Please model this.
Amino acid sequence: MIISKAPEDLINTFQSGGVIAYPTEAIYGFGCDPDNEKAVLKLLEIKKRPIDKGLILVASHFSQVEKYLKPVSANHHKFTLPSDTTYIFPALETAPKWLTGNFNSLAIRISKYPLVNELCSTFDSALVSTSANFSGEEPAKTKNEVEVTFQEIVDGILDGEIGSASKPSTIFDIATGKVVRN
Model:
């Protein structure tokens, strides 16, 4: 396992289908290349999470996620800007089912958190983003918690501090105007 404070040290892990842990706004998250089905399935296996639930992608720029989504209307442009909120967008029919699960939509957060932005910019890609935990358990909040619990399972850790948010991001569905998770 590679542990580093520098995202560039994790590029090969990301590109070769590895699963990494990294600090987010409130917790450590697991991430991988959203275009690599084997990497996503590995991440789901680590979490013991069913594929049908769908996943969240984080990005540093909306251009990193546009290829998965139906065109965004002018009314919804505000949801494409950096935010602390995760937005559910209508997905293209070609969006991978390993990302959308049983839905025709995809949850996206254009992160304002510097470490997430640096990671996505370094990889020049969005990342799958899900909490660093086994489904139903409390998520890790430190590098040490990730290392102790997942040292034989994940391929890399970006060592850094989580943000000051007290809980994972709110999820808002732009199609229905409803909060899915608060």
